[in-house]
Amino acid sequence: MRIDPLGAAVAPAPLPAEAPAGLSLCDLPLHAPAQVLQVTLPQQATERDLVLRLVEIGFVPGERVRVIAHGLPGGEPIAVRLGDTTFALRRFEAGFIRVQPLATDAKAAR
Questions:
Q1: Where are the alpha helices (DSSP H) in 1-110?
Q2: Residue 77: cis peptide before it, omega within 30 degrees of 0
Q3: Which of 13, 12, 38 lies closest to 25 in space, CA to CA?
Q4: Is 76 exposed, middle or buried (0-12, 13-18, 19+ CB in 10 A)?
Q5: How open is the CA angle 91-25-110, to the nearest 5 degrees?
């Protein structure tokens, strides 16, 4: 608490919510390697079940991922390579997965 000039106690302003690090999997450029940072927890119970399924199939911190294709029209579904498996995710589902792009080796890309 702080005191205003008139002597009244003033509650501190709430801190802004920190944005999760990295970017959403649905925003990851095609073929860019990345590492899962976190799967965000949604507010609604029905979405929590979806997030639980994402974790159960392997979208866990530390796993490497790569977006390999976008469907047409509208870019859905997103084909995502996780380990040796390819998954098709809706953009809504991929939005719960936060990733950190990894540096690419120019020689390896050739």
A1: 45-56, 91-94
A2: yes
A3: 38
A4: middle
A5: 120
At 42-79, the pLDDT tens digits run 888 888 888 999 999 999 999 999 999 999 888 889 99
Beta strands in 2-63 (DSSP E): 2-3, 9-10, 23-24, 33-39
Do 25 and 33 form a contact (C-beta atoms < 8 A)? no
For the entire predicted model, the pTM comes to: 0.72
| Domains defined for the chain, CATH in brackets | 21-101 (2.30.30.90)
Separation in Å, CA 67 to CA 11, 17, 38, 51: 45, 28, 17, 19
CB count within 10 Å of CB 19 equals 8
In 3D, which of 41, 24, 19, 7 has the Cα closest to residue 78? 24
Yes or no: say if 66 and 34 are a contact pair by the CB < 8 Å rule: yes
